[in-house]
Amino acid sequence: xxxxxxxxxxxxxxxxxxxxxxxxxxxxxxxxxxxxxxxxxxxxxxxxxxxxxxxxxxxxxxxxxxxxxxxxxxxxxxxxxxxxxxxxxxxxxxxxxxxxxxxxxxxxxxxxxxxxxxxxxxxxxxxxxxxxxxxxxxxxxxxxxxxxxxxxxxxxxxxxxxxxxxxxxxxxxxxxxxxxxxxxxxxxxxxxxxxxxxxxxxxxxxxxxxxxxxxxxxxxxxxxxxxxxxxxxxxxxxxxxxxxxxxxxxxxxxxxxxxxxxxxxxxxxxxxxxxxxxxxxxxxxxxxxxxxxxxxxxxxxxxxxxxxxxxxxxxxxxxxxxxxxxxxx
Length: 329
Prior knowledge:
By secondary structure, the protein is an alpha/beta fold. The strands form 2 sheets. It has a 7-stranded mixed beta sheet, sandwiched between helices. It has a 5-stranded parallel beta sheet with strand order 2-1-3-4-5, sandwiched between helices. Helix 3 packs across helix 4 (about 100-110) and helix 5 (about 150-160) packs across helix 6. The chain folds into 2 domains: about 30-145 and about 270-300, Response regulator (Rossmann fold), CATH 3.40.50; about 150-265 and about 300-329, Rossmann fold. The protein contains 12 helices and 12 strands. It has helices at about 5-25, 45-60, 80-90, 100-110, 150-160, 180-195, 210-220, 235-245, 255-260, 270-285, 305-310, 320; strands spanning about 30-35, 65-75, 95-100, 115-120, 140-145, 170-175, 200-205, 225, 250, 265, 300-305, 325-329. It is globular, with a radius of gyration of 23 Å. It is about 45% helix and about 20% strand.
């Protein structure tokens, strides 16, 4: 063969190879395993689900076209994750998305080969989920919703401005959730001490602990409640109790005031889910989780429910209203 013709043939072959591979990948339908907390039957959770799906579409992946999502929901029972992950591994999904620390741990223990993207998980490095935020290592990466002492300090400050008589705060937290336990001990307790607010510890591992928590609240009589990393599936009973006992309730996630709580301050969950989808897309396109840094929250929001404030007989100070990103009336 003539040298020039030979070189041309080789060059064409080298160019055609990645194009052929790309065309082959373009025709593939990816299967994603989804480990969530609660089925998106309410508007706030539907917003998170749609944010994730829109994030996928923004990067060329659409459910029902080139992506199938196998969804599993714990409904507040974290012990279900092990069985759910085993199911997804057996199905040979291409990737697993987790929405809680417990789900992330269960997925990591179940597989070292299937990529895992965690969304809105606090302090993944401290929990041992990743080697470091910059270089996760292994098969897991994602988006953290970790807030530091400064953000927690803002929660206390806003709540104290809104409830001037605040001297005792009940914190509902889950000691079996590593992120919740670490945040409670290392961030919330120091922040409360700095503002001279006494804390009432209310441990809630599951629905069965709510009655005991309510009894403790009735006895300790805190001035407000902070719902900290507790399953959204408990929201109805918690918020009904808070309303009945005229207790202002603050949380980190905006879906709590949307469901009737007084206010929330924390990372925008819709933004976290959109960014989580971007991580998923990168991996489906060939990136390795070990090489994708765990991203930190960048967008925070203060949400206030004025209807709830009125029912509680509270007047939201203009200084607090001026800082609100969303006001529910």
